[in-house]
Write a structure and sequence with these properties.
The chain is mostly helical. It contains 12 helices and 6 strands.
């Protein structure tokens, strides 16, 4: 069966280390050339896709597709609509091997769209004579609310879509209630509690938390300032931005570096004399850098143990909703402040329409957001 591996720092095209590029190998450990060629194109040539998380997603989609090809005896360049329909229906009716839960329609559509990108590139590169399924330019469903920024939609309200994708209505972000977050944090250790606090007080993603470095922490934050800006270099899409953690959170984080993190480093050095301390802020008990997947798995385990339903990304939704509400309040005293534009900059969204969904979230969950402002943030900030 196919294997999914990732390049290391030793992979240096044009003399530059390029780790984390996904590579597919067959059962004989040979490169699966069409898949690897496209993944290298995405990582090294196509300038629009600089996020390593996007590279991983593309690699995982092709990995799952190649396993499906092998399990069914299909040739990758001989498949047609019927095989793609069978693949789609298997996901609709089955469960994920990774989570054990049914596939979401969003996940299914992402996989089909990635396959569409792959086969279109193969056709353009002359690897196949034609795309194995039709690509059409479909209008957005009339059942979907009109975008509040439709007047600036460069595509005229139309999006490219694979005809095999399933109908999917995007749900509104869900802010977490303070009690839910407290329950999830109840049995966490100091490191995991800090990770959750960083997410819910700054809106950072898993990728961005994993990208935090010890050297980013200010040595002596001014007590006169409520927050100190931290520059994020590892972000979704590679767009550098700043976040503003509260001073008490920075104090607790520095204490973690002096205590729990230092213990993990000492133990790792005792086990292995050649151990090299990672630059990452948050480490595992073995002294390894916490990865985005480990961060997500940690929060999932904690929620399951606490018997609460929550996802790590909902911590970011909670921050976004409460920050937008705070900015709206401030705009009554400072009319020049545009709450939505300010939130877009804080969250690092490339598209204002993405940020705008939080306006609808406030309309639906204003009481939860107000409670979070009054209860949770005062508690975490103290």
């Amino acid at each position: 069966m196919a294997e999914l591996l990732f390049t290391t720092e030793a992979f240096q095209p044009q003399g530059l280390p390029t780790p984390n590029v996904p590579m597919l190998l067959d059962a004989d450990m040979r490169l699966i050339e069409p898949a690897c060629a496209w993944l290298l194109h995405v990582a090294l040539v196509r300038g629009q896709t600089r996020s390593k998380e996007t590279w991983r997603t593309y690699g995982e989609v092709l990995y799952d597709w190649w396993q499906t090809l092998e399990a069914n005896g299909w040739a990758w360049d001989k498949v047609g609509s019927q095989e793609l329909i069978a693949y789609r229906d298997r996901m609709l009716q089955g469960t994920s091997n990774y989570t054990g839960r049914p596939y979401s329609r969003a996940t299914i559509n992402i996989r089909l769209r990635v396959l569409a990108l792959f086969y279109r590139w193969c056709a353009a590169s002359g690897l196949i004579s034609e795309i194995p399924f039709s690509i059409s330019d479909l209008s957005l469903s009339r059942s979907r609310p009109t975008s509040f920024l439709a007047h600036v939609d460069a595509k005229g309200g139309r999006q490219a879509a694979n005809e095999l994708t399933v109908r999917h209505t995007r749900s509104l972000p869900r802010p977490l209630e303070p009690a839910t977050i407290r329950q999830a944090m109840a049995n966490m250790d100091a490191r995991d509690r800090l990770i959750v606090e960083w997410a819910v007080t700054t809106g950072v993603r898993r990728l961005e938390i994993a990208g935090l470095r010890v050297t980013m922490l200010p040595d002596n934050a001014s007590a006169a300032l409520p927050v100190v800006p931290i520059r994020l270099n590892v972000t979704k899409g590679g767009k550098v931005r700043q976040v503003y953690p509260p001073l008490p959170l920075l104090d607790r984080t520095r204490a973690y570096v002096r205590e729990e993190r230092a213990v993990a480093v000492r133990k790792a050095r005792k086990r292995n004399a050649s151990y090299c301390e990672p630059a990452a802020l948050f480490l595992t008990e073995q002294g390894e850098a916490m990865t985005p997947r480990r961060i997500g798995a940690m929060f999932t385990r904690a929620c399951k143990k606490a018997n609460v339903k929550a996802t790590f990304h909902e911590l970011r939704h909670t921050f976004a909703g409460t920050m937008l509400r705070v900015l709206q309040r401030q705009s009554t005293r400072a009319p020049e402040l545009n709450p939505l534009l300010a939130l877009q900059a804080i969250l690092g969204h490339a598209d204002l329409e993405t940020t705008g969904i939080y306006l609808r979230m406030l309309a639906n969950d204003l009481s939860t957001v107000e409670t979070t402002i009054d209860e949770l943030y005062k508690g975490l900030g103290s």
